Amino acid sequence: GAVVSQHPSRVICKSGTSVKIECRSLDFQATTMFWYRQFPKKSLMLMATSNEGSKATYEQGVEKDKFLINHASLTLSTLTVTSAHPEDSSFYICSARDLRSDKNIQYFGAGTRLSVL
Amino acid sequence: AQTVTQSQPEMSVQEAETVTLSCTYDTSESNYYLFWYKQPPSRQMILVIRQEAYKQQNATENRFSVNFQKAAKSFSLKISDSQLGDTAMYFCAFMEYGNKLVFGAGTILRVKS
């Protein structure tokens, strides 16, 4: 199956700093990637849809200036949490859809646990 | 807007037994996809099974099968011969063609030895 790599898996940062999370599709191209946030024992909450070569589409209530998304190539999307604060601590997951397939399957990265001190 | 409901927050099953996880959804569309994803303690989301709404035949993947009732908008997952490695949170998800996934709240499944 298709592989999505997400890095880093764990990051601890000080309040006020910015953190960048990378999401790469390793063996396929993805014009569309998705970024989710997940709280413990809760469902995945879609934050934004990342489109290659264009601006991301943010879900209602998600601050686009706080969560910057860049999708510069068909295999890489990045999420930057700017001026992070303790309330941004969470588990962030990316996914990508394989263009080669008409099965509309999203493949997920392993997630990034962000802790803001 | 589409919604996905998983009414069982937690379930447990004995090893080698069969368990069924329920899922209902709401949509006015006729063409869509349904998925079950598994999230073990590692938190890596893993696709378990996929169903296309226009196919009447229920999807199966080894020990995993679904009961897809389109008119009732129901999409349950049956796990046969449960194994300890099946312990995970299971999410039912809905997708309109080419669109984003809508997840249910999830069901925590514990397989007991």
Number of strands of chain A: 11
Distance between the ends of chain A: 37 Å
Order of helices and strands of chain B: EEEEEEEEEEEE
Shape of chain B: globular
Separation of the first and last Cα atoms of chain B: 41 Å
Helical proportion of chain B, percent range: under 10%
Main pleated-sheet profile of chain A: 7 strands, mixed
How much is the radius of gyration of chain A in Å?
A: 14 Å
Q: Rounded to an integer, what's the Rg of chain B over CA atoms?
A: 13 Å
Q: Roughly what fraction of the amino acids of chain B lie in strands?
A: over 45%
Order of helices and strands of chain A: EEEEEEEEEEE
Mean pLDDT of chain A: 93
Which class do the helix and strand fractions of chain A yield?
mainly beta
Provide a short characterization of the protein structure.
With 117 residues, chain A is an all-beta fold. Helices cover 0% and strands 52% of the residues of chain A.
